[in-house]
Every structure is written in structure tokens, then in C-alpha cells.
Amino acid sequence: MMTSSFRQDHTTTSYPQPPPSATVDHFDVLPDSLLLVIFNNLKDIKSLGKCCVVSKRFHTLIPQVQNIMVCVDCVVSDNNTTKPYKPFSVLNILRHMLGSVSNFLRPMHADVDHKQQKHHSPTHVLKNFKDVRELTIELPKGELDIEDDVLLNWRADFGSTLRKCMMLAASSVTKSLKEDEVNGNDGSIPDTFYTNGGLKMRVVWTISTLIAASARHYLLKEIIDEHKTLKKLVLSDVDRQGVLRMNKEEMDELRVKPLSVSLATNRTSIPALSMKLWYAPYLELSDGSVLKGATLVAIRPSEKLVSKDVNDGSWVDFEEFEEPYRTAARMLVKRKTYGLEMNSF
Known about the structure:
This is F-box protein. The protein is an alpha/beta fold.
């Protein structure tokens, strides 16, 4: 008796697929509150703009995002060239970049013609966000055009005007000290510091820092006026050369006090200042690097100084600097302090 058997061919078997109506969109099962947590951690305004056109639900939720980060990716100045200390360059950087993402925040049915796209101010781009609490704006580079081997970092706090500023600088960063440099590093400022342009260069760095900081401050005025829910505002750059911070108290002060603008420039006026300077010809750090001509400058408005500011340490917020420069600042304040004064400008 002959029998036959059949073996299933798995290569040709067709498995049934669920009907389209049974397909689950996992985003649909997430509550709005959880989606907002995701969007708030996303932060980047370009990404948020793209999410805004995904669905009607996303389009409704995106304007409720409270934490936003604007990363600038294009530099444009008045004459199509970059000028390090020109305050308008910062303004045009933001206007040019933000114009490239503003169309994402239009209704989903908008017909976007990128070739005809106009540039918009930061306020225009952020206008659809009604409850912004934390805003970070990041420039592609610092305004100060310095040589590659020069270190220059600054941190500034503003209210209606400058509250405090710190600058950490070095003429160069190297990996080791020569023997004669080690023997000559007794901690004192050499006479050549005053005669070879060392002091003059640090004054230039300080003034340039203050101009860059006040230009950023001027730029933020309109944003602060429009977004009264803001609690934290940071204007930084990719290299973190400069960081301007404002908290809720400082922004409230700016809203109620008139902004003093420097004549013929788009920056905030700088008041009369008192400064403390610390200097080391050579400063060896724990990571093996050496700062040559290491300088720390702490700046305060003269009229706001009080008795508690007499202590040199109270002038410096070490946590504002990342390592190893935080340690460098701590090492510098142990050295002799030099006082400077500067008129308003």
C-alpha cells in the first residue's frame, strides 16, 4: 500500500496580517502629560518644529512646551562678513537662523516656499510658545575673535544692567613647562608684564568681554518682555566662550526698569565698574596642561558694592567654570589680588 505525505513549505507560507483598523499607534495610547515630558526633554526648536507637522495632536501640544533650546547654525552680518565685536552680528545670527525654522511652526496645511522665505526675529519664532519657562540660545561661536592657542572664557549675569562678570584667560595653553620657566615661577608678577603689553592685552580682553556680554543682553530684551513666564534664560555659544545667564528676579527687574542703551550701538550701557585681578605667569593643572599668563578678572558695578563683597572669594562663583578651569580659578584667587576701576561706557 502506497502512502503519500506532504511537507509544509515554510518559504511560501503566507501568514495573515492584521487589518489596518487593528494597527495600534503607540503614541495614541500615551497621555498628553507624558508626551509633553518627551517634548520638554527634546528642547531643540528645530526638532519641535518638525514634530509640529506630524499630527494635529502634536501641533496642539508643541506650543505648550516649557523648555526650549535654539541652536544657531548660520552667521550673517550686515555686509555678509563676520565682525567679532559688532553687536549687530549677534542679532543677525539669530534672525537668519530662526527664520529657517519659523515655517515649521505654521499650520500643517501651510505651503512653505523655502526660496521665498523671510528672516524673522527670535520673538517672531517663539510667539507660538505660550508658557516658556527655560530658554537656551546657543550661538555657533563666541563673538571674540582670538588666536587658537589663547584661552578666554567669560560668564556674566544681568538684570536691567550688568550685575557681575568673570573672565578667565591665558595667553596660551601648553602641555609642559620648560626648566627655566619652572625655576622662574615664584608666583609674583614680573616687571615685563607691565612693559611688554601683558597688562594692556588683558584690559583689551576685559573690555571686549563686556561689549560681547552687553550686546547679548540687548538682544534678549524683546524676548523677555514677550515671555513673562520665563524663569531661566541662557545665551551661550557652542565653545562656551561666553555664557550670559538671567534668572526670574533679574528678568523681572529688566521688565520694570528702563534699559540703558549705549549711544549709536545695539548693546546695553556698562556702568562704572570695580574689578579684582589675579595673575600667574604659569599655572600647572591636574590634567597636565599649563596655562601661561593665567588671568582671572572678577567684575562688579561700583555702585552696588557692599561690605560683604570685601572678601575676594565672594567675587568669584567657581561653579560657573568647567574643569579643569574651575580648579584654575581656585588656584588663582589664592594669589595676590590687584584692584582696577573702569568708567562707564
